[in-house]
Amino acid sequence: MSSSDQYLAVPVSTYASPYARLRPVPLDEVHLADEFWEPRRTINHKVTLPAQYEHLEDTGRLDNFRRAAGKLDGSFQGLYFNDSDVYKWLEAACWTLATNPDPELERMVNAAISEVEAAQEPDGYLDTYFIDEKASERYTNLRDLHELYCAGHLIQAAVAHHRATASERLLDVARRLADHICETFGPEEEGKLETADGHEEIEMSLVELFRETGERKYLKQAQFFLDVRGYGRISGSEYHQDHKPFREQDDIVGHAVRAVYLNAGAADLYAETGNESILRALKRLWENMTTKRMYVSGGIGSRYEGEAFGRDYELPNERAYAESCAAIGSVMWNWRMLQLAGEARYADLMELTLYNAIMPGISLDGQSYFYQNPLADDGTHRRKPWFGCACCPPNIARVIASLPGYFYSTSEEGIWVHLYAEGEANITLYGNQSVRLRQRTSYPGDGDVEIEVEEGEGGFSLMLRIPSWCEGKASIKVNGKPLEAPLYPGTYHEIRRTWKPGDKVRLHLPMPVRMVECHPYVSENEGRVSLMRGPILYCAEQADNPGFDVRDTVLPTDARFSVDFHPELLGGISVLRTTVRSIPPDTGWKGHLYRTANLRENSQGEERDVELTAVPYYAWANREPGPMQVWMRSR
């Protein structure tokens, strides 16, 4: 890696990773100008980050650092891992500064870093929960108290700060802490602690610190933390992914966030080491998750108990946990898998999860959040401005802040287009060839995308993702001439030619409304369908359907849908409408939970045809409370 590569604004730097096929395009070289993502990034910058900083102050999270530095008296405030919320906020703010210089946000970042610097112990240790009377308890309960988890988020924030600003202030703090960790953890015969943290995070952060500094001991330490799991040193339980060595795992189990964070770290390790047993395990776990343990939204983690994956096909709707952080971890893992392999299935899942499992986690005004994301509700589940366990709000903020970095990659072949949105990108190819691309599109509102080469020329491939949801006849024209080669959903289509400024590629992705059914082993969804259009999942919300209960609707199998864009509704959405049958429970159910089958009473003419309105699932619960359904009965 050249010294200049170290300062490129990318969350995951695979520029010098020998086993990664792709390398990312820095987020500050991608300028979005669309009507979906860029307004949300503006709200994230102008509203969410300042409001979250106030929450960090008001809830004592920053005061915990002041207390650790001896600036304040009093006791620790909040949960033992509250430091991590500060670090995730810092990472989000740094990625924002990389694309949007802002003196006031920079002031907040520097103020927070000053508190973090002052709290660090002389030996490099840093965790504000373990000071004074608790100092002797360091590393005595790694299973539960998240010391290395917090350290990992500090390291990621420090790398982001360095790449966004070139300042080494926070990076120096992170390196001292990482050096301390390397001196403390390792084989018992070396007099070290032979264990890992109960909550994974440190693994991927140490790999990224290796990439930033070139210090191989950080890579070696990350490998140690992966390899020490599975031998009962943490708990021996599936909850902590400690039930068997990583390379032997077949099913994705336990706490969902921890599992996908571990997998992200393992993918990072494969990119650097090429250990095939790691890659084989990653592929098995991905297959198990996506074919048996994932919601139609891309959400993961079906159980409230342990915030965990359930058994195969255990995917309840109203009791879905589907934590926002788990969806974020899935995107992190899939981004790394995409860089390793260049396979469209990983980008497909990233897109699904971004729109339908992460964005529901934040309100349209950017000031309240979901921790859990159910797929059905009676009107009682509402977003909150903050949580005692506030892992999700700053995690969502850092995804939105870093989002432009997920749109493109490069390889020896050329440019890979993963996501579609109006905007432009300045891209440096292998051999330092410079190209500027412009996307023109209303995606995800429609599937027409034009990509123009505005600057740069020469021979390279343009790899366009044909989404797996595109089951119709996708088509491509280059300078108005149709390509005759077939396009396959769920792949990248390579266009190889000698390009010149003014060349235009037009991609058409048909977006009919699709009625999606579920595997029959998911018993709760038997006889039900969900609605999707393009990458967007829809739901029926009571606010749009006041004349009947949305839980009573039955979709005909031959339903015809109208699609209308409403710029004034919920930030601008495409609304689906169709005629359905409203079939409420018959009068014989009054006062009964059970009855003998086939004794149905006259429903007194309550069955009727009604017009159902469906809105994007990401936008639900932004109006008055009421029932919501993703999966609807069909016949």
Structural overview:
The structure is a single chain. It contains 14 helices and 22 strands. The protein is an alpha+beta fold. It has 3 domains: 3-406, Glycosyltransferase; 410-508, Immunoglobulin-like, CATH 2.60.40; 525-634, no CATH class. Strand 7 (434-441) and strand 8 (448-455) form a beta hairpin. 51% of the residues are buried. The model has no long low-confidence stretch (mean pLDDT 96).
What's the helical proportion of residues?
Answer: 25-40%
Distance between the termini: 59 Å
- Morphology call: globular
Mean pLDDT: 96
Q: How would you summarize the topology of this molecule?
A:
Layout: E1 23-24, E2 30-32, H1 37-58, H2 61-68, H3 83-99, H4 103-119, H5 142-145, H6 147-165, H7 169-184, H8 202-213, H9 216-227, H10 256-273, H11 276-292, H12 324-341, H13 344-358, E3 376-377, H14 392-402, E4 408-410, E5 414-417, E6 423-428, E7 434-441, E8 448-455, E9 458-466, E10 475-478, E11 481-482, E12 491-499, E13 504-508, E14 513-516, E15 528-533, E16 536-541, E17 553-555, E18 562-566, E19 573-582, E20 608-616, E21 628-629, E22 632-634
Parallel strand pairs: 5-9, 17-22
Antiparallel strand pairs: 1-4, 2-6, 3-21, 4-5, 6-7, 7-8, 8-13, 9-12, 10-11, 10-13, 14-15, 15-16, 15-22, 16-20, 16-21, 17-19, 18-19, 19-20
Helix pairs in contact: 1-3, 1-14, 2-4, 3-4, 3-6, 3-14, 6-7, 6-8, 8-9, 8-10, 9-10, 10-11, 10-12, 12-13
What labels would you give this structure?
7-stranded antiparallel β-sheet; 6-stranded mixed barrel; Immunoglobulin-like; 635 residues; alpha+beta; 14 helices; 3 domains; Glycosyltransferase
